[in-house]
Amino acid sequence: EVQLVQPGAELRNPGARVKVSCKASGYIFTSHYIDWVRQAPGQGLEWMGRIHPEDGEITYAQKFQGRVTFTADTSTSAVYVELSSLRSEDTAVYYCARCSAGPYDYWGQGTQVTVSS
């Protein structure tokens, strides 16, 4: 069974950074791109970028360039998104999603990131 497991919630102060994990299981970890997508309250899904765990190929959405870092750890089958200089507008649910030939075929359950002083 394919699973993408994320932590439940993170709380940070403005200006801090957060690193969210996504642990994959049930398939060959290096065989699929993983995308990061977020959804702020009352907003639609926003694509942040993607990483290929095998070769580390990364594409960042222009909006997040310079503030976001994706990494992959093949020894633990996990990918990570780290977002720095957090502001209130970064409050959102952050999802990892596995890419397939069509739409995403598996999603993590989402991590609520709250930025508040």
List the helices and strands and how they pair.
Elements lengths: L2 E3 L3 E4 L5 E8 L8 E6 L5 E7 L6 E3 L7 E6 L4 E6 L8 E7 L7 E2 L3 E5 L2
Parallel strand pairs: 2-11
Antiparallel strand pairs: 1-3, 3-8, 4-5, 4-9, 5-6, 7-8, 9-10, 9-11
Main traits of this protein?
single chain; 117 residues; mainly beta; 7-stranded mixed β-sheet; 4-stranded antiparallel β-sheet; 49% strand; globular
Write up what this structure looks like.
This protein has no helices and 11 strands. It is globular. Strands 2, 4, 5, 6, 9, 10 and 11 form a 7-stranded mixed beta sheet that branches. The protein has a 4-stranded antiparallel beta sheet with strand order 1-3-8-7, with no helix packed on it. It is mainly β and 117 residues long.
Main sheet record: 7 strands, mixed
DSSP strand (E) fraction?
Answer: over 45%
Total DSSP helices:
0
Shape summary: globular
Q: Assign the structural class, choosing from mainly alpha, mainly beta, alpha/beta, alpha+beta, or little secondary structure.
A: mainly beta
> Are there runs of 5+ residues with pLDDT below 50, and where?
none
User: What is the number of strand segments?
Assistant: 11
**Element-by-element helix/strand order:** EEEEEEEEEEE
Percentage of residues assigned to helices: under 10%
Quote the average pLDDT. Answer: 96
Short description:
By secondary structure, the protein is mainly β. It is built from no helices and 11 strands. A hairpin with a 5-residue loop joins β4 and β5.
